Input
Amino acid sequence: GAVPERTSWSEAATLQDPPAALILDVDPGADDVLRTLESWAADAWYPICIVSLQPVSGAWETHQHLEALGYRRILHTADHAAYEEELRSTVQQVIDERAWLVPRAARAVGCADPAVVEALSLAVIIVPEVRTVDRWAEKYGLKSARGLEALFRRCRVTNPAAVFQWLRLARVVEYAVHQAKIPTRNELAERFAYGSEDYLGRRAKALTGHSLGRLLALGLEPFFELMETRLSADPEPQ
Output
């Protein structure tokens, strides 16, 4: 269902909101392009980016620089046949994993650190199968939620338990608003493992101050604005 658009780097640099995915044709010698990539990294856009790196002088140094910024999907174009298939599957993965939610979540928690953003990316992927912070931490390769709490504390991000509850609800809203007909609360509760429609409604109200129906009517952008406002009002992590 994705609709591709081809654009210039100068036009892409003016984008205000992250699209579903970005395929970036990068010449390692283009300083203006690297500045744009650095700017996007500061806004945690790298989860939606697939970097297509031209095999010219300086490519490996550019690869290392982009990895340090947080870019993980970096393809080299030397093997044309393999590259095309890898590019196709990588774009599909970005879309299937709903990576476009991650820059919005990172903005809401006020952090673009690659370790935190990777944790947010994982959380978006594992919902609804995973419902607890301990399991989220284990999936991230940590022994328990304490490791995740330590990471978030180091990066001055609020409690991961609160963040995870918001991300679970974000997946509910994202799913619902993209259906031709808004699902019932019971359907959403079952799909996203909330136990009951009443519990889902209570969690939505407790987190956001709005009923679930109101959240679905508002849509995703206002939802993440609410997330940012509510989380920023929490006491700073100690």
Notes: The chain has a mean pLDDT of 93. The CA atoms of residues 53 and 237 lie 39 Å apart. DSSP finds 13 helices and three strands in the chain. The two ends are 44 Å apart (CA to CA).
